[in-house]
Structures are given as C-alpha cells and as structure tokens.
From TrEMBL:
The chain crosses the membrane at residues 16-36, 71-91, 112-131, 151-170, 199-219, 231-249, 261-282, 372-391. It is a multi-pass membrane protein. Belongs to the major facilitator superfamily. Folate-biopterin transporter (TC 2.A.71) family. Keywords: Membrane, Transmembrane, Transmembrane helix, Transport. InterPro entries: BT1 (IPR039309), MFS_trans_sf (IPR036259). Signal peptide: none annotated. The keyword Transport applies. It is found in: Membrane. It comes from Phytophthora sojae (strain P6497). It comes from the Eukaryota. This is Transmembrane protein. GO terms for cellular component: membrane.
Length: 424
C-alpha cells in the first residue's frame, strides 16, 4: 500500500526496492561481522542424547547461554526480512503493471518467468548452505565448514549487487500515483463479490492446507537421520521441481480450470507425502533419501496450484494505481492464514506425546501418537479443497463477475474482520 500511495521523489517502485535491499544489506553485514559464540552442544556427539539421560559431566558441557546470544541475530534477521518484503512490494507493483499489459491469451507469462528465475537462484542458495553448513557442528559429516558468518558475508554482497539493478532495470513513469486514499479503496474493494470470495478462498485454504505436525523436524533428524548436505540437495531439487510445475502451467495450463488444478494438486500432495511419512514412523523403511525424495514429487503439483492462485489478481481490472496493493492482498490473505494454521497445529498436537523427548524413545506408543497426529493433519489438508469453490474457474468468470459489479457491505466487513487479527 505504501508504494502505491506515497511516492518518493515521484517514483513509486524503485526507491522502495532500493531502501529494502539497503536494509537487507546492512543487517546481513552486521550479522557477518558479529561473533557467533559457542553452540549449545559444545560436544556435537551429545546432540543425539536426551537431556534426561546425560551425566552431570555431560550436562556441564552444555552452553545454556546460547539462546540468549541469538537474540541480536533474531532482531537483525527481522530487519533483513522487513527489507526484502519492502523490496518485493515495490517490485510486485511493477510486475502487476507489466502483467496486466499482456494479451489475455498469454497473461500470466511474465509472472511465471519471475517465479522461474526466483527459484533458479534458490537452487544456488540451497547448494551453498547444503555444502557450506555440513560439518559436525551443524549435524553433518564434513570436517570443514563455511560457517554462519561466511554465509552472511555472501548475503550482503548479493543484496548490494541488487541495488543498481533495482534502479536501472525497472522502468516506471515519474509522477504516477493512486487516485484515492488507500483505506477507502480497500473498504470498497472488499465489498466486491469477486474480491471477498477470493479472500475467503485464499485465507481458509491456507489455514487448512498448511496444518502439519510439530514433530516433523524431530522425526527428520532422529528417525530419518537427514544430514544438512542432503537436506540442501533436496531443497535444490525442490526448486527445480517448483520451476517445472510453474513452467507446465505457464506454457500449457493458463486456460485450464483453476479449481480442477488445485483439487488435483492438493490430493497428490497429501497422498505422496503420506507414503514416506508413515513408512518412516513405523520403521518399515527409514532412509534420509526416502524421507526427502518421495515428497519432492509433490512439489510439481504444489507449485502449479500456488501459481494458479496468483493468476487471479492479474485479471482484476479498473484498479489503476493500486497494482502493488492488489498483489500484496493476494500474498497477505495467504500469509495471514499461516499463524492460524500454526495455532491449530500446536493445539491439536498438544494432546499427543510427540515432542522431541518422546521421539527419542521411538516405541509403539509414540509411533501411534505421531500417526494419529499426521492423519488429523492430512484430514485438515483434504478439507481445504472445499474452499476452492470460492475461486473462479477461469479468467472469463472473473471478468463476468466484475461486469455484474455485485457488492456486499456485510461480507466486506466480515472479510476485514477475519483478516485484521493477522495483519501484522
């Protein structure tokens, strides 16, 4: 909203991109320079031993002050993340402007290209962290490591390089701005039938589809024995498969039924993920590559479904000047749902014995508890498909709904009410 309504020196996109990447640069530079301190486990071999089973001598080696030293890094990470969000907000406005100028038959291609490039660089990032953070101190097997500080030196370098590209490679007309204040615009926007239905779909679908199990990381490290290197390789493959899913829809599926795509994708994601999860839980077959590899297949439908959900906002017409706000709305309605999913996940899992101390016991009772938790999560994930009915089938349906211009103050206020608690 800020980039649409408050130009800086007459420009609405590029200055915010530069300020955002500058914040990221400064924060990452400070993290690179600050000493990391001693880890919690000064002896890495103790990380596989439950605290209750340690001897007094072993307990004495634990660095209990380690979490306190991390507060500075957490704050700097928050500032760096805020900077990237600001930079992306400016870029999203420029992306929306370009996308809406595309011919209807190929509209969404530019957004697909951006997603593909984004994940190509994620491959490089995953490769660096997977190789560079694979020493024993990080749960890996290498005798050497880049270390956290070295990784952080790369981050400010990349942020700094992005700054000139943000100015010279993004074109915008000086002096353009929104024609009305943003709050009246949003109030009127949420009353539109096409918008409040989309917001309901995006919010509730996210809440139900992202419910998971709190013990997944403990299972990955204790039962599947996943090493950082292989986790990094899996992240690289995830990025490649995400590119594949996005490219498939971009080249062949721009006119497919959006509801059908998301329903098929959600079913595939759940059932593909369930196979290695249940076999690992019951020790039928435990392998880090089985745990990591099989769910990778689900990344293709997941990426396709996520891309389809973003295509909606490109089709919203007659909102000149609020391009970044519209695309930000698509992101916000999704991100606001995530905290609710986290609360539900923790509330449900609180009734089961699936904490790390229980995972370390690895007995029949714990396996049964973990299985029940996963089955409940999968049930929630499948229920999310019901909210796809709020999503239009295709772009022509969106245009028809806009021509009808049906509005409802009641549903507009309801939408604002359930989005407001998670606005931060």
């Amino acid at each position: 909203m800020l980039t649409d309504t408050v130009p800086i020196f007459g420009y609405r996109r590029r200055p915010y991109m530069i300020i955002g990447w500058s914040l990221s640069f400064i924060s990452c530079l400070l993290m690179a320079a600050l000493p990391l301190g001693e880890p919690y486990y000064t002896d890495p071999s103790l990380s596989d031993i439950a605290t209750v089973d340690m001897t007094p001598e072993q307990l004495a080696t634990l660095n209990t002050d380690a979490p306190n030293r991390g507060i500075k890094l957490i704050i700097l990470m928050m500032i760096a993340n805020f900077g990237t969000v600001m930079a992306y907000s400016g870029f999203n406005g420029a992306l929306m402007d370009v996308s809406q100028r595309e011919p209807e038959a190929t509209r969404g291609t530019a957004m697909g290209d951006v997603i593909v490039v984004h994940y190509i660089f994620m491959v490089i990032s995953s490769f660096m962290t997977g190789i560079g953070l694979n020493s024993e101190a990080y749960g890996g097997t290498y005798s050497w490591t880049m270390g956290f500080n070295a990784i952080m030196w790369v981050c400010p370098a990349m942020s700094f390089l992005t700054i000139p590209f943000s100015w010279y490679c993004v074109q915008e007309v000086k002096g353009e701005r929104a024609e009305m204040p943003v709050l009246p615009f949003l109030y009127n926007l949420f009353q539109e039938r096409v918008i409040y239905r989309y917001a309901a779909y995006r919010f509730f679908y996210t809440v139900f589809s992202t419910i998971t199990v709190t013990s997944s990381s403990a299972i990955q490290s204790d039962w599947a024995k996943v090493e950082p290197l292989n986790s990094g390789i899996a992240s690289m493959l995830t990025a490649f498969l995400t590119i594949s899913g996005t490219y498939l829809v971009k080249t062949r599926g721009l006119h497919w039924n959006w509801r059908h795509i998301i329903i098929v994708c959600e079913v595939c994601v759940v059932f593909i993920d369930a196979i290695p999860t249940l076999l690992t839980i019951w020790d039928v077959y435990r392998s880090q590559w089985f745990w990591l590899g099989v769910p990778l297949v689900a990344e293709v439908p997941f990426a396709a479904g996520d891309y389809v959900a973003q295509l909606f906002m490109i089709e919203i017409e007659n909102q000149k000047g609020f391009e970044a706000t519209l695309l930000g709305l698509a992101v916000t309605t999704q991100s606001v749902g995530s905290p609710f999913a986290t609360v539900i996940t923790k509330s449900v899992d609180g009734y089961f014995d699936i904490g790390r101390t229980f995972i370390e016991q690895d007995n029949h009772h714990v396996r049964s508890q973990v299985t029940l938790a996963y089955l409940i999560a999968y049930a929630f994930n499948l229920v999310s498909m019901a909210f796809v009915l709020y999503l239009p089938k295709q772009k022509d349906v969106i245009h028809e709904m806009q021509r009808e211009n049906r509005k409802s103050k009641f549903w507009g206020v309801v939408t604002i009410c359930y989005l407001w608690p998670g606005r931060s």
